[in-house]
From TrEMBL, chains A, B:
Protein name, per record: FAD-binding oxidoreductase
A molecular function GO annotation: alkylglycerone-phosphate synthase activity
GO biological process: lipid biosynthetic process
Residue span(s) of domain FAD-binding PCMH-type: 96-278
Record-listed FAD binding positions: P128, F129, G130, G131, G132, T133, S134, E262, G263, T264, L265, G266, V267, I268
Membrane-crossing segments per the record: none
Pfam families named in the record: FAD-oxidase_C (PF02913), FAD_binding_4 (PF01565)
Similarity section: Belongs to the FAD-binding oxidoreductase/transferase type 4 family.
Species this chain originates from: Paraconexibacter algicola
UniProt keyword annotation of Metal-binding present: no
Annotated PROSITE patterns: FAD_PCMH (PS51387)
Secretion signal span: none
Length: 549, 549
């Protein structure tokens, strides 16, 4: 990936026609005059001097071989941070506060273990790195107060699928395998994992598991935590592996302590995942619903009846309005706008439903779902818009790059709560985001969708867009991030539904798990990583956010 | 419950007519002549002298009130042990190796916390106690090497349902609420939990959660670990509560560290559970299948298609043969025997399917399930046998009492593995049980059923019956338990699918989670229970089994 944004060079995704004009119109004067600000060149990124000792480097070379320890400028820049808004703001400006002194590429589980042993012996912090797509600072190359050097452990070479047991719907997959590779290799066996986060093209299975990822089709296939049957993890204290038995009462579930541990307890090297036969039929369609509340009730009813489609995604009124405004002159957009116009444009939400499975199963599921949607006032807008959503499902991050060049702040954050509390949480977080940015003179657009539904509740995914505060981009981001995080904690939502904690959500983890919960996580870390080499400054180790004070 | 067995006095469950003759015929001479051996009277049970100091007792009284600290003989006997085979052998003989010095009955979460604080301060071990139905020694009143006294913390007063959120399908329930009370209180809201372990009449929600229980309908409703949304736990280091959000990426899942912790990390006081509308229709039916392998393939196909009935229970050939032999002259038994006779009695398995839900849903599900069963050679035996199974679903433990009086060893053990390994595990464990008992001159009957099915595998539940070795009942039990445990570990099954670890499975936990896994559990315990007052000798704290050397 290019260091300053998403995708590879030459893979640009231009803003839809008219989008920029729309944003200027909506965001007001501040955005209207911004001249484009492209990222600096790679060679102009200033890195801290490398501090790895010769002895430490020699130990790493002994672990993985000379060819797999790299410390050239480009490699260090590409592993300095992830893809969060503050990461990109800093990378585009060529000023990164930290970078790995070297990047090591172990080739198997034992080499990962050897790297960790070398790090522990030489006092070098180790940052596990899959696709590097964290949007919460999870892969930022922090060394912490106790280590004089930091290396990134890139798991790209752990890319494989083996031990496929189709009868048991299980496969063992290397942690460094990217989304497309997972699906390509499983497809050879007629199988799928069905995990499609927006980062799918670049992120890895190990990263998904380490961050408790949810995919766009997780309502159907389950979150990654539902799909993990067993794990193999290298830690500075040895290897820990969990059994892939289907059900057990053999004490606490250590798998669930390792899933979501974000590289702070160990490095996941292999995952035994639950797989399924590849779907032969996919049908994506869009419906219009009278308002967000009606859409939420629709999703609740579908999920509690056990018939929610694999993709079940409800845009709020604002997201619907802006999507239709940007959708140009397609027939779906026209129908949608007509629908809204008939309602005075004050209301109206779109619901995207993606059915996947065998032909009979999809037909049967649609026949059960449609009456429920209609009962709540749903009007079919057809499948063309659904297919379009599916085709563009991974495009969001590309657009972000273009907006950043146009000096537009764009970020997302997500939470979840019970059905009973969902609308209250929705209002509280939206209000906090709007207030924080309005108070800084950059009133935002705030959109939201519900994209993961459970029997007991659902997620909320907010996107907000505002004119950048020139010269105070990080302070502006910090203000809105802090306001939203506080609002989520106050309303009892989770601080993150699928982006993980990393560095950017760490200040709120204590509110969610309590002080004793934090201590319990620290006790686990002390046992597995007694010298604290693994991913300092993340998860239980909250420091100040970028742009703070 | 009566101290020496199951149920209340006057609630006897006589053996089916002819059962005893059948067992004598099958088990041979050793069982033929056994004269009945009734349990001793309560007053004849010999207890160790109580060792609680006056200061410690005063601290407990301060925590819960004088009326809720009891140390009379009957109370101590009733809390001395659970309901495992070695427990009952010893209780019936009036010789219990350990008993609580007192039993305390806290009335709410804060009183539980106060009890634990008093225990920690005065060096008194504390054994959490729900229904007392553990079959793995989980509630045996062990004090461990570091404590001079032990009290049992009986949670019977924590019996309530509150904060029912029907929209979110969530309810908060007291840990001491028994199965019938859970269902009675939820029924007032039109809801059900759907958790029916064989111990249902006496066991409690807190006990289910602490032991990762599975119910007889868990294929439909999910294991208790699937049904727990949030927890509140009192520990000697403070309270830990987990949020009931439906999905989160906020780090490791601490809930899953507390579920299955068997009272060694804390005392569960409240559980927020997932609930559902009560089913309006239930249809239980029995099918005959050609053999175990065909039945397993049937269950696998049903589960992987997402249509397995709530109760999906497959008896192996031996269990089928014995059940039909004992079923007398019912029409189902006649049909079943005719089916077996036509196959030379060498093969044939019964499959019990229990459908629950709305009338339409049940009809629809049956219409999907039946062709699959028929495809694998299934022949319908009708619903009468299914209803009979349902009516007697909690009766097993009552029969055990009668067999013990008749000097018959009867015990059960359970495991689980992937579909791919299931038949190998079945053969290995069955062979180990048979060999161990044959080697002692008491050849057994060994039956098995598959009763919990998952997409990736299933459970195996073995029942074995043999003539008791007079005067060496515990040594005999130890021989077969050790042989079965070793066979399970060698074959990669879990040492327990739903009975938990307790004391009796602790020697095999290390084989399942590895030495570092054990250390991780010990680190969690050291943080939450630094002086080790909670349930010594259980889970991570393996001692010798009853009857060992």
């Amino acid at each position: 990936m290019r260091f300053w944004g998403w995708g590879t060079d030459g893979h640009d995704e231009p803003l839809p026609a008219g989008a920029l004009e729309l944003l200027r119109r909506e965001l007001g004067d501040a955005a209207a005059d911004a001249t484009p600000r492209p990222p600096v060149a790679l060679e102009d990124v200033r890195l801290p001097a490398a501090t790895l000792t010769d002895q430490a480097r020699a130990a790493l070379v002994a672990a993985v071989g000379e060819a797999h320890v790299r410390d050239d400028h480009a490699t260090r820049v590409l592993h300095a941070a992830g893809k969060s808004y503050p990461d990109l703001v800093r990378l585009r400006a060529g000023t990164v506060p930290s970078a790995p002194d070297a990047v090591v590429y172990p080739g198997d589980h034992d080499e990962v273990a050897a790297v960790l042993a070398a790090c522990a012996e030489h006092g070098v912090a180790a940052v596990p790195f899959g696709g590097g797509t964290s949007v919460v600072g999870g892969v930022e190359a922090l060394r912490g107060p106790d280590h004089a050097a930091v290396v990134t452990v890139d798991l790209a070479r752990l890319s494989f699928v083996r031990e496929v047991d189709a009868r048991s719907q299980l496969a063992t997959v290397g942690a460094g395998t990217t989304g497309p590779e997972v699906e390509r290799l499983l497809a050879e066996h007629g199988l799928t994992l069905g995990h499609y986060p927006q980062s799918f093209e670049f992120s890895t299975l190990g990263g998904w598991v380490a961050t408790r990822s949810a995919g766009q089709a997780s309502t159907g296939y389950g979150r990654i935590d539902d799909l993990v049957a067993g794990l193999r993890v290298a830690t500075p204290s040895g290897t820990i592996a969990t059994s892939a038995v289907p059900g057990t009462a053999a004490g606490p579930d250590l798998r669930e302590l390792l899933v979501g541990s974000e590289g702070t307890l160990g490095v996941i090297t292999e995952v035994t995942v639950r797989v399924r036969p590849r779907p032969t039929t996919a049908r994506y369609e869009v419906w219009a619903l009278p308002d967000l509340a009606a859409g939420i009730e629709t999703l609740r009813e579908l999920r509690q009846a056990g018939i929610a489609p694999a993709v079940s995604r409800l845009s709020d009124e604002e997201e619907t309005r802006l999507q239709l405004a940007m959708a140009g002159d397609s027939s779906t957009a026209k129908i949608g706008r007509a629908y809204l116009a008939a309602r005075g444009r004050a209301h109206g939400c779109t619901l995207t439903l993606g059915f996947e499975g065998g032909a009979d199963g999809v037909a049967d599921q649609r026949a059960r779902v449609h009456p429920v949607v209609r009962h709540h006032g749903g009007v079919a807008l057809g499948s063309r818009a659904g297919e379009k959503w599916r085709d563009g499902r991974f495009h969001g991050p590309y657009l972000r790059d273009e907006l950043l060049t146009r000096r537009v702040l764009v970020d997302t954050l997500e939470t979840a709560t019970t059905w009973g509390d969902l609308l209250d949480l929705y209002r509280a977080v939206g209000a906090a985001i709007r207030r924080a940015l309005r108070d800084r003179g950059t009133p935002p657009l705030v959109m939201c969708h519900v994209s993961h539904v459970y029997a007991t509740g659902a997620s909320l995914y907010f996107t907000f867009v505002a004119a950048q505060e020139d010269g105070a981009e990080l302070e502006q981001w910090h203000a809105v991030k802090a306001a939203a995080g506080d609002a989520i904690a106050a309303a009892g939502g989770t601080i993150t539904h699928h982006h993980a904690i990393g560095r950017d959500h760490a200040p709120w983890l204590g509110a969610e798990v309590g002080p004793l919960g934090l201590d319990l996580l620290r006790a686990a870390k002390a046992r597995l990583d007694p010298t604290g080499v693994l991913n300092p400054g993340k998860l239980v180790d909250a420091g100040p956010l970028p742009g703070a004070g």
